[in-house]
Specification:
about 100 residues, 4-stranded antiparallel beta sheet, 1 helix, mainly beta
């Protein structure tokens, strides 16, 4: 699994990622369930849409969460755990003022 981008918009967050084998077409919703977003302000993030495309060898996905981090948040942690509960990815992003 590779995180491609984390986009912080004015009212939502989008995570884009890719996988080679392991997920098939149509599994974007299942894959999105393994993600969690946390910030140092304690914001509760709610899923807001997901999708994916590709083939049996390579899939690209994206999922959104609302709201965006509040102005007082300085760090956003993005993590993914697979279906067995194993952490596969963790990124800590510094947020600017």
């Amino acid at each position: 699994m590779h995180a491609i981008a984390v986009e912080v918009w004015s009212d939502f967050v989008v995570v884009r990622w890719s996988v080679q084998r392991g997920f098939g077409p149509g599994d974007a919703d299942l894959a999105a369930r393994g993600w969690s977003l946390n910030d140092d302000a304690g914001t509760a993030y709610a899923p807001h849409g997901s999708g994916g495309h590709g083939n049996d060898d390579h899939m690209r996905y994206e999922a959104g969460w609302r709201p965006a981090p509040p102005p007082d948040a300085r760090r956003l942690e993005v993590a993914y755990r697979d279906g067995a509960g194993h952490e596969r990815l963790r990124e800590l992003l510094e947020l600017g003022p």
